[in-house]
Amino acid sequence: MELLAKNATSENDMEQQFINCNENLLFERIKYVSYMLIFTYPCFFIVDFILLAKLNNPIYKFILSTFHIIDLMISLIFLILYHRSKGNAKGSIILTYLFLYLFIGAVSSINSQLNNGNIYAYIIILLAAAVIFPVQPRHQACLITGIHLFFITGLFLLEKNHFSFLFKLVNSTGAAVISFTIAYTFYSFRKNNFTNEWKLKKNEESFRRLFHMNPNPLVLFNLKTGNILLLNQQAIEYFHLKNKDMTKLDGWFMLTTPEEKQTIVKKLEEHQSLKNYMVKHKQKWSMLNFELVNYLGECCVLIGSTDITDLKETEEELYHHASFDPLTGVLNRRRGMEILSQHLIDGASDFIVCYIDINNLKMVNDKYGHSAGDDLIISCCETIKRHIREKDVLFRLGGDEFIILIFDRQMDVAQAIWSSIQSEFQDMVITSQKPYPISASHGLYQCKSGTNFSPEEILELADKEMYREKFKHRINQIARN
User: Fold this and answer.
1) Fewest beta carbons within 10 Å, which of 46, 111, 277, 291?
2) How many C-beta neighbours within 10 Å does residue 181 have?
3) Concatenated DSSP letters of 178-246
4) What is the rounded CA–CA span in Å between residue 268 and residue 208?
5) How do beta strands 401-406 and 298-307 pair?
6) DSSP conformational letter for 90
């Protein structure tokens, strides 16, 4: 009930606002008509006192000149009232002016029966009043009906020819009906237009109110120009725009590249919206929702933002835990195998798998303790990382076993990388940096593009190469001894 009462009040307010607006418009029109009549009255007086001076119809001339003078006085009086009212519309003044306007037209046409017998003046006044002064239909109907009855009565009294009277009755009545129809059409059209504008304004006000009440950062800008139209306080604070000149700020400011903008615009044009688009803006991660909306007759983009920085940090932390070995900081088996599988699926180029097994880990654990064994693994990992390239991948397969994915076609490149690693191991032994020996065995297997081996089979082949190299190393040691 309360909502219905509120809507009824709103409708009444709109009705009253339209009446006031229409009266203001009519008031201005009467002013212009009055000025026009005042400026044209010298012409009327020339007709009355010079051109019609020799007309042998004194009653017709007297009535005509009298009403011309009355018209002049009415126009002058209205202009005085207009300036005293400071332009504010007065409904009673408008209706009075319209009544006198129609009345004088009717009297002029009745007076014409004394001279030429036409009713043109009345018809012209009716049509002009309908076009220039469309007041409320009920007022218009009352005025036209009353004046028309007066006109018909006067016409009946002066027109002696029965058929001539009937023709003029039909024509004048038709003109009166058409006049009311035109006035009603103009009034209804203006009212509908005002109603639509009023509703649009109310919708805009509601939109603005909801826009600024929304707890999330919101940005509204013109799609074509990029000019920001609305920005709520949450967006100003979230994007640190307090001291920014909004006239120079583009609505796409949170995006990093023009390509991103083009991609989003294309998707918006296809689907009218784009949900859950993640961007990083000044160390903050945001989830953006884009909507194409019509605002003030323009195609605009509404962007709602949600801060997901904490969520992304948690996600990255979980990713790190899921992808990296906690002891050495290199990729773990799961992530390493994913990369190997993906590279096998892509099959774009040859690569080399280096299978590494750290020597003497059990002996170090037994003799120096597991902390020393962990230190051995970490030292070997740090050494390996210093010698591989940025594009290569190192991951821990498990225990004392590691894998290097060397993305190169040449076996010589892989041999050179391993030689540099072995050289540093030897330097560490020579300089006695650790109380235990540091060394590792390796096996290199070259994987050709288009191979049908699985990741596990690839590693098994590399493992065999590692044991082959380890066996050769032992044979050589025995031969030296």
Assistant:
1) 46
2) 11
3) HHHHHHHHHHHHHHHHHHHHHHHHHHHHHHHHHHHH-SS-EEEEETTT-BEEEE-HHHHHHTT-TTS-G
4) 23
5) unpaired
6) -
Choose among 332, 333, 327: nearest CA to 375: 327
The first and second tokens of residue 284, run together, are 């903050």
Distance, CA of 79 to CA of 89 (rounded, Å): 13
27 touches 87 (CB < 8 A): yes
* Amino acid at position 42, single letter: P
Burial of 189 (0-12, 13-18, 19+ CB in 10 A): exposed
Which residues 6+ apart lie within 8 Å of 35 measured at CB?
75, 79
Task: Please state, in angstroms and as integers, the Cα–Cα distance from residue 305 to each residue in 236, 279, 315, 465, following that order.
Answer: 12, 10, 19, 55
- pLDDT per residue as tens digits for the range 180-191: 999 999 999 998
Cα 421-427-432 angle, rounded to 5 deg: 130
Closest CA to 295 of 234, 205, 214: 205
Q: Is 283 left (phi over 0), alpha (psi -120 to 50) or beta?
A: left
Q: Is 140 helix (H, G, I), strand (E, B) or coil?
A: helix
Q: How many Cα atoms within 13 Å fall on the side-chain side of residue 268? A: 20
What are 72-124's pLDDT values in tens digits?
888 888 888 877 776 555 788 888 888 988 888 888 888 877 777 788 888 88
How large a percentage of the chain has pLDDT more than 90? 34
* Residue range 263-309, pLDDT digits in tens: 999 999 899 999 999 888 777 888 999 999 988 888 999 999 988 88
Decide: residue 350, CB within 10 A, 0-12 exposed, 13-18 middle, 19+ buried. middle
Amino acid identity for residue 149 in this structure: L
Give the C-alpha separation, 355 to 349, whole Å. Answer: 19
In sequence order, what are the residues at sequence separation of 6 or more whose Cβ sits closer than 8 angstroms to the Cβ of residue 385? Answer: 330, 394
Confidence label for 470 from pLDDT (cuts 50, 70 and 90) = confident
Report how far residue 375's alpha carbon sits from residue 381's, in angstroms, rounded to the nearest whole number. 10
- Confidence check: pLDDT of 160 > 90: no
**15 — alpha (psi -120 to 50), left (phi > 0) or beta?**
alpha
Taking the C-alpha atoms of residue 46 and residue 49, their distance in angstroms, rounded to an integer, is: 6
* pLDDT digits 0-9 by tens, 300-337: 999 999 888 888 888 888 888 888 999 999 999 999 99
In terms of DSSP H, where are the helices of 388-410? none
Backbone phi, then psi, for 127, in 5-degree steps? -70, -40
- The Cα–Cα gap between 317 and 152 comes to 95
